[in-house]
Structures are given as structure tokens and as C-alpha cells.
Amino acid sequence: MSQKLVVVIGAGVVGASVALSLQRDGHNVTVIDRSGPAAGASFGNAGAIVNGSCAPTAMPGIVRDVLRMMLRPLPPLSIRAAYLPRILPWLLRFAAASRRSRVNQIATDLHALTATAVEAWRELSKGTSLDALLATGGWLKVYETEASFTATATARELLDAAGTPYELLAAGDIQDLEPHLAPIYRRAIWQSDGLRIVNPGRMVEEMVRLLAAGGGIFQLGDVSAVEPDADGASVRLTDGATLRADRVVVAAGAWSRPLAQALGDRIPLDTERGYHLMLPAGTEALLGRTVLNADHSFVLSPMETGLRMTSQVELAGVEAPPDYRRIRSLLPLAKRMLPAVDASEASVWMGCRPSLPDSLPVIGRCGRSPNVIYAFGHQHLGMTLGPVTGRLIADLVAGRSPRLDLSPYRPDRW
To answer: What topology does CATH give the domain 5-45+201-269+360-409?
Structure first.
């Protein structure tokens, strides 16, 4: 394998994972980002690494469920009216992806990526400072009503078909596992083999620091175009500078679409804006793992500096200002869920998840040139799939056969 000069566009968890994987393969790597490491969705998510996750966002009945949600005063999913004309084609593809036959295939393709998520994270972090930011405990989903648990039947069928291990817990088991939870939950689903990142923003910053310590480069810059040629590609910046590379990896998250479109690949990438609210320092001691409140569609995840409450999918693009009403309205529900918690606001945040209507990322070569490779669109699984994606991109750059079939994630699948 020949050493190459590789430019990675994007310093979120996917871009940072790709960069470290390439560096460990012997390449010279430069990462460029418009704002800085973990400045986008990677900073503020729940930090869950869900091994074997396979249920897509668009499940059978999602159209009916969305219409019901929209009747609530502050729904967990919202669409800003001004953005509706732009997102409508994406929504139509999203609805089409919820057909049962498509859901089964998407679940298979998602599982192919997520089945080795923990292994990939352990491989990337072994012997480094990253290891201290990983915690065990898994992913716990709690259900207050029998109806909300019954509604997971299709998702459980997908997990069973994929062979993803999980446990069903009754009320007493839930209390044994998480004694600070209010005794109001009848059922739970626990995927015990998952990990969590105790500070996603610091994790990505540390990944970029390790890259620099190994001789890689991080550079602030706003990319205006990628121009491939026979020998490699040029990366043009808005300030007029140019970076030359043998290979370019586009991993710019929600900002990847215009770069791909300029290269001739019309990819229906949009953004699911997500929100978090941090509860004060010390509250993290009340939970031992990431917990999803399924009845009210929010997550509580223990972080280094407090409990992080994440919720909401908002379709409004990357430019609209945030609306924190929904996430703040959940504070009384967090207190009901965890009675001992100090349910006051320490900070709030909004970030843009890069999402595709079929819940699968784009991982593969640009249609115009093999010298440009895409790695974006990981929606709710960016933290889970960062190192997995890094290994796959390293295979492509090295000219090795990837360790799994990449055709389900190809850029031209629409």
C-alpha cells in the first residue's frame, strides 16, 4: 500500500474517526472544518454507542404516527412551515422507506454496519486517552404503559431477525438496574452490550488532538469546492486557498450536500435538528446508563458534567434559529422520571443531524472520480458508526476490499 496525502473535510466524529483510521494506515492526513472539532451534531448528542442497532427511523405506520404527533402543542417532531416546500421531496422518500419490505432490507443493511460498533470503538481507543471517555452500561428503553411497549413489536422483530441481543425487563428488574427511576415503568428493553461516551464533544476534540500528535494536521477553513482530476483532487476554500491531495473524503455532516451536488451527485441529504438540555453537575450520578423515556420521546444520558436530556426532531434546515420551547417543556417530565434530580437548566444546545430518508449513510466513491470518497448521512447513529466508517474508508483509500458490501450505502442509490 502506498502512502497518500488525504484531506478529510469535516471534524465531527465521523471525520475524526476516518482521519485516525487513515493515519494508522500510514497516510498523511489533514482535517479541515469550517468551525472546529465537534462543532456540529457530534458535540451535543446522547453519546450512545448502540451495538447491533437496526430499526430505521421510518418504520411502518410512521406517517400516521407523525400526523398524531403534530396535533400536540409541542410535538417531538416538528416541521417549520417555511421549510416544508424544500423538505417535501425528502418526506415523500421517507414515507416510501417505511414500507415493510423496505424496512426489512434497511434493517439488514443497518445491522451490517452497527454489529461491530463496540469492537470498532475498542479498536480505535485501545491504548489511548480515548478509552477513559467510554463507559459501559448499555442502552435502556423504559415504558410506562403496556401500549407504548406493545408499539415496539416491529422493532423487536427486526432485532430478533438480525440476531441483536437484548433483554426484556419487568418493573422489579428496572428498579434493580436503576433504583433512582420512579417506580412507574412496567416494561423495559435493555441492550446491555452498548457503550456510552461520557463527553462526546471532548471525545472528538481528543481524537483530533491524537491525530495532530501523530503528525496529522487540523485546519480551520470553509470548503467551497472539491475539484478532482486524474492524479487526485484540489480542495478550494472560500478564502482563496487551495489544498492538494491524492484523496479527499467528504465527511462534512449536514453540510455535505452542496459539495456532493457540485460533483454531480444529487443526494437527498437533509438535517434532523436535535436539541439537548444539560441538568446540573452531580445529577449524572443518578443513572448508570443512557435511558430512553419511550412514552415521552426523550433521553437522559449521564455525562461528565451532569445529565444530558436530548429530544426532538425538527425539520427546518441548517440556517433557522433554534427553538428551545420543546426541550424546556420536558423538565417536569424529567423530574417525574427521576424524582431526586435537580431539574434546572444548566445549558441548552441545538445541532443538525445529517439524515437521509432511508436511514442509511452514504459511504462510497464519488460518481465523477474515485479520488473523492463520501462518508456522511449517519443520522442518529453518528457516534455509533464513527469508527466503523473510518475502517471502511481506510479500506477504500488503500485499495483493499472493504470488510462488508458497500452497495447499500452507495451515493447513486436514488
So the answer is: FAD/NAD(P)-binding domain (3.50.50)
